[in-house]
Amino acid sequence: DKEAALAKAPTVLGVLDAHLQANDWLAMGRPTIADCAVYPYVVLAPEGNVDLTPYSHLALWMERLEALPGYLPKP
Fold it and tell me: 36-68 pLDDT, tens per residue?
């Protein structure tokens, strides 16, 4: 249900952004499978009309992930 997902997005992204304000990664202080699992949902959110600009710490986290060795951008 797209409308329900759009309604929940600010809460979920706010929680992630707040966590990333104090932490570079989602778990264990280093890149883990948690980051790999969450990243695709976040990076593709704008395709569902979710604005990521209010979440500056989320943007920095995505940059850190994209700078990891072996990162492959979406086609």
Answer: 999 999 999 999 999 999 999 999 999 999 999
* 30 three-class SS: strand
In a domain, 56, yes or no: yes
From CA 53, how far away is CA 59, in angstroms rounded? 8
| pTM, full prediction | 0.91
- Please choose, from the candidates 72, 73, 4, 9, the residue with its C-alpha nearest in 3D space to the C-alpha of residue 45: 9
33-44 vs 2-22: helix axis angle to the nearest 10?
Answer: 130
How many independent structural domains does the chain possess? 1
Cα separation of 15 and 66, whole Å? 21
